[in-house]
Amino acid sequence: MDATDARLASQYEAYPYPQRDPRDEAKRLIVGSPSHLREIDHWIFGARRPASAPLRALMAGGGSGDGTMMLAQQMAWAGRPGEVVWLDRSAAARQVAEARAAQRGLSNIRFESGSLLDLPKLGLGQFDYIDCCGVLHHLPDPAAGLAALAGALAPGGGIGLMVYAPHGRTGVYMLQDALRLLAPDSEAPPARVEIARRLWKQAPETAWLRRNAWITDHLDGGDAGLYDLLLNPRDVSFTVPQLAALIEGAGLRLRCFVEPLRYDPDRYLNDPKLRARTAGLDPLARAALAEAICGNMGIHIAYCTRDPAPLPDWSDDNAIPLLRELDGAALGKGIPADGVLRVSYDGLRLGVPMPRLASAILPLVDGTRSIGAIGAVLAGRGIREDSFRRDFALLRDALEPLNRLLLAAPATARGG
Length: 416
Prior knowledge:
The protein is an alpha/beta fold. It is about 40% helix and about 15% strand. The chain folds into 3 domains: about 5-165 and about 240-305, Rossmann fold; about 170-230, no CATH class; about 320-405, Arc Repressor Mutant, subunit A. The protein contains 17 helices and 11 strands. It has a 7-stranded mixed β-sheet with strand order 3-2-1-4-5-7-6, sandwiched between helices. The protein has a two-stranded antiparallel sheet with strand order 8-11. Strands 9-10 form a two-stranded antiparallel ribbon.
């Protein structure tokens, strides 16, 4: 632990992050990426790992518990066996996370105090899935941190990462520089928070953070959010190539960025001459191009594995498609007359063309029917099999890159 790391540890004791009230667990479950159970099944395990197989997950740097609550609750609701191990060195964060788990009555969470850098000597064993969300960019050596996580993976396991990205955080580092002058870290945290709030009120309209509508922790994250954003003693960000190099250096394989659609430059570039040039780029260069031209990515979320892993098999008639946080019937009815679904990411609006049969297929995607069963229902309504196959493939091409149409974990092991 260096001096900066000591200040970081003190920060999270004073302001557990994110700022949460355990009583709010009765009102809502905070859902997001990474570590959504359906995403883990799809992106990490290729929808091949049986739902009956116990899932052992580690939340490395679990903080006040957002990811832990989400995954443990989803496992409990689905009747999935296994446990979620929360690991963090902050006693204050542990107190919040334990209170949240108690409010939910979750018994599948195990709480452990310590640093992820100490994993080799903590004796926690191996994990099928590891979450490391918002942690690596605060470590003195992110590569050592990711290597420690990779070493704790069970065969066939994977990791979900979230790190800061530079372009979408425009303005953050400028105000961090200003506050190092106005509120040095030798002062007590409450005094620094007061000065930060005063500076934000006085910052001129030309301050870049005022023009960055996608960063809001200093506005709606309470004192913990403001401190983490503007007063954090160590805060680095990663471009797509830098994150890819970090992943490769740990002996891991990048499965995907989330959402995949955002990292496809052809979603933004319609000019045929530009597309002719993007066609010659490898997938990583294409993702880097998308990041550079959009400018609004404040974080990168990635799933990666240590071992080669099969991709989801959309050609398997027994595979069960499902929608993540979407109602198929409502989505089908809401498709505009021009057949183009509009989505928005941090101020950027994109059009996603939907196939002609989308409104007929989507209500049947209920998480229980297989692809073959959906086709059989539509065949009974007079829809030809080749038409269904064509439009289902188009629907997959439209919604899987949005991280919304995924394949479920099979109930039992399947071949392939």
